Amino acid sequence: xxxxxxxxxxxxxxxxxxxxxxxxxxxxxxxxxxxxxxxxxxxxxxxxxxxxxxxxxxxxxxxxxxxxxxxxxxxxxxxxxxxxxxxxxxxxxxxxxxxxxxxxxxxxxxxxxxxxxxxxxxxxxxxx
Amino acid sequence: xxxxxxxxxxxxxxxxxxxxxxxxxxxxxxxxxxxxxxxxxxxxxxxxxxxxxxxxxxxxxxxxxxxxxxxxxxxxxxxxxxxxxxxxxxxxxxxxxxxxxxxxxxxxxxxxxxxxxxxxxxxxxxxxxxxxxxxxxxxxxxxxxxxxxxxxxxxxxxxxxxxxxxxxxxxxxxxxxxxxxxxxxxxxxxxxxxxxxxxxxxxxxxxxxxxxxxxxxxxxxxxxxxxxxxxxxxxxxxxxxxxxxxxxxxxxxxxxxxxxxxxxxxxxxxxxxxxxxxxxxxxxxxxxxxxxxxxxxxxxxxxxxxxxxxxxxxxxxxxxxxxxxxxxxxxxxxxxxxxxxxxxxxxxxxxxxxxxxxxx
Lengths: 128, 360
Prior knowledge:
The complex is a heterodimer.
Chain A: E1 11-13, E2 17-22, E3 25-30, H1 32-38, E4 41-43, E5 52-53, E6 58-64, E7 68-72, E8 77-82, H2 85-88, H3 92-95, E9 104-108, H4 120-126
Antiparallel strand pairs in A: 1-2, 2-3, 3-9, 4-6, 5-8, 6-7, 8-9
Chain B: H1 15-20, E1 24-28, E2 31-36, H2 40-49, E3 52-55, E4 60-65, H3 69-76, E5 89-95, E6 101-111, E7 114-119, H4 124-135, E8 141-144, E9 150-155, H5 159-164, E10 177-182, E11 185-190, E12 199-204, H6 209-218, E13 222-224, H7 226-235, H8 269-278, E14 282-289, E15 306-313, E16 318-326, E17 335-340, E18 343-350
Parallel strand pairs in B: 3-13
Antiparallel strand pairs in B: 1-2, 3-9, 4-7, 4-8, 5-6, 6-7, 9-12, 10-11, 11-12, 14-16, 14-18, 15-16, 17-18
């Protein structure tokens, strides 16, 4: 497993999700803290492309041996791409939570929501 | 699980070891216990392939001694206690009059009229009270030994070799027990476990447990938490009290008829005999998911019944579990559909154990 890290170029939701926002779209994933709390991820079934996600609402699940955990959408929009590679190798979410372990890409419906997210320093502070 | 969340959690004498090792500690039956150290899958595979050590000091113990110790235990325990030789061990359940299961237990016969019974942490006080109530008519002493005993489980194909290297004599065979010094500490060594692998369980004074833990870890045993303990037991279909049976279930529907000897007349035997003869509406079965997904406790099954234990099997690499289903749909190879939070997951009723270990 990787060491704790919270990259500065991402925005964070207090429910331990991150968003990489670019040109009205965003990539979502779970933070290092979330994957560490969950333990080794053994199952992830991507949501459907074309489905809508709502900020602060669960949009998919990740499962470890022991537990299933809802993943909360940090922003609202429509899913335009999912990480199908995770079905075969769900542990990538643990190994590279900010890289190959991304979950979905979303076309944002309300880009103004971005201002409500935390920067890395604020998110890190929320963990203490 | 007990409802001890409003009281302070108890800690075993190994708490400092767990904390120092970076274990994730969680509330369990009123205790603060390690659920994992490095990861459930790694710990699980260490036990299947090599050797792991578990702190199970939350388990309770009741000592039963006196001239009528055998007669008393024969009265309350479901199995034929007279068949336990001195230095032997036996699995049984404790039933209410109506056959409802109060607990499942291992009983060790230390001497002719001296027994030690291991209880589940969440049930210990209840079991003790139940036994004390029924002991009045017998010339027998019941002693709560839980505060004086720590318990370690050393499990895996290399467990016996590892413990033998630290012991002052031969280890007891499977389903037997004897007094030994291990790492210089006197203890009861028992040839039992909850993983399906060969191994031993050690009962000793709590103050000595850290030194023994260190000796076992230094000799190569992987520290394992209750998470791996659960996946290991479920792969081999050992019941977990509170999940797979409770006071609302009798031993027949729970698939524990084999440890009930109705002819001994134990408390609850009449209802167990009737259920054995007449059948039960539901039966506990083991299942494996056919595709992806993981069924969890409480997931309903189409046509009736529900999952009682469900997890991801690290050895079979698929979702597995146990469930109560209507008796007419409980045959091996029956296809069932489990509602996993709104998604239908097909599964098939499979032979127990779901995973065949090499030993013991």
